[in-house]
Amino acid sequence: MSRGQGPRIYLSPPDMSDQERARLLDAFDSNWIAPLGPEVDAFERELAKRVGVHDAAALNSGTAALHLALILLEVGADDEVWTSTLTFAATANAIRYVGATPVFIDSERETWNMDPELLREALRDASQRSALPKALIVVDLYGQCANYDSILEACGEYGVPVVEDAAEALGATYRGKPAGSFGAIGVLSFNGNKIMTTSGGGALLSNDAALVERARHLASQAKQPAAHYEHEEVGYNYRLSNLLAAVGRAQLARLDGFVERRRDINRRYREALEAVDGIDFLPEAPNGRSTCWLTCVLLDEDQLGVGPSEARQHLETHNIEARPVWKPMHLQPVNRSCRVIRGAVAEDLFVRGLCLPSGSTLSDEEQQRVIDAFLETPRLRRDGQ
Ligand SMILES: Cc1ncc(COP(=O)(O)O)c(C=O)c1O
Q: Please, which residues bridge with residue 174 across strands?
């Protein structure tokens, strides 16, 4: 085997144990398969408790949860929904599903999340023009909560409801409060690359139990209680299956361990790379605790001699998966007609950013392989040499 080669190291693979397997098989053997059942009910209760909200609806994706959140807030075709430009496409797509117009807001340097000051200014301006957004979707990026003190204050002032897209941040806290609990509605994802996974899945959370009940109704084809299935509105097939909820319950019970492991991985990357001139890490704000879902670095090509693309391609030659930081939504061709409020910070994070393998299954030896391979990127200058 040539130097640096070995089994593939993935960015953020699932972390499964005998517990998930046992729960899945128990659910299977119980024959609660089609598709709801007691595991879904228990998973919803446990999720709500963990996030500290009244209720949770288990769904088949985070994207479905975002879509339903906007329906519940009665967002429609003539509305604007403002959101973070630095996010995964699902956040913006949900806005399009309901026919509304997304407006993108730039990031702050402190957390890479939505810039609260920019938001406040834009809300003030929109209010003067009687053009306030119908809702705001705030994204908690890469395992870290946005600055909710400022964001919720600004939105409260202008009466704009907040959806918290905590798809990437389950397990994080902000001022001791869990991610997913900040908006009128919170959204989680259990997609295969997330800190915990049900292979595919998501949840919609709220303190408003009636809202969550309505989400369940819409997510199960909006069937009215009649033997012949009466439908008064358009429904969706968005519920999580009982089998996958069983996996989710076992994963949730291990969530604290996943967070600790990902934070350890982040600490080790920092120890190995932070001193190198030209490498900066996604900062952790002092008022929160990140899960470090993905460890992200910014590479200064002038200082370092290489940029993220060369580093990523070099890691690939060592069979290591790394990824660019999200391409901002305002730069995506599909959103070319949408308005952006500034955008230069997110653009810079995209140009210089790289996400390193961060999964909780990553062993110390594998992480060392990543670090060694990264530092051996051709033309990479260490310590400004
Ligand atoms: C910020 C963000 N929002 C929404 C989603 C969508 O979640 P899902 O893949 O479960 O639909 C994801 C990830 O997949 C995400 O990273």
A: 177, 288
